[in-house]
Amino acid sequence: MKDNYDLVVIGGGPGGYVAAIRAAQLGMSVACIEKRIYKGEPALGGTCLNVGCIPSKALLDTSHRFEATKHDLDEHGISTGDVTIDIEQMIGRKEAIVKQLTGGIEGLFKGNGIDWLQGWGTLLDGKGSDKKVKFVADDDAESTITAKNVILASGSIPIDIPVAKTDHDRIVDSTGALDFTETPKRLGVIGAGVIGLELGSVWRRLGSEVVVYEALPSFLATADKDMAKEAAKMFKKQGLDIRVDTKVIKAEVQGDEVVVTSENKGESSEQRFDKLIVCVGRRAYSEKLLGEDSGIKLTERGLIDVDDQCKTNLDGVYAIGDLVRGPMLAHKASEEGIMAVERMHGEKAQINYDTIINVIYTHPEIAWVGLTEQEATDAGYEVKTGSFNLAANGRALAQSEAEGSIKVVADAKTDRLLGMHAIAAGAGDIVHQGMIAMEFVSSIEDLQLMTFAHPTISEAVHEAALSADGRPIHAIQRKKRK
Question: Of 119, 200, 290, 399, which sees the most CB atoms within 10 A?
Answer without folding.
Answer: 200
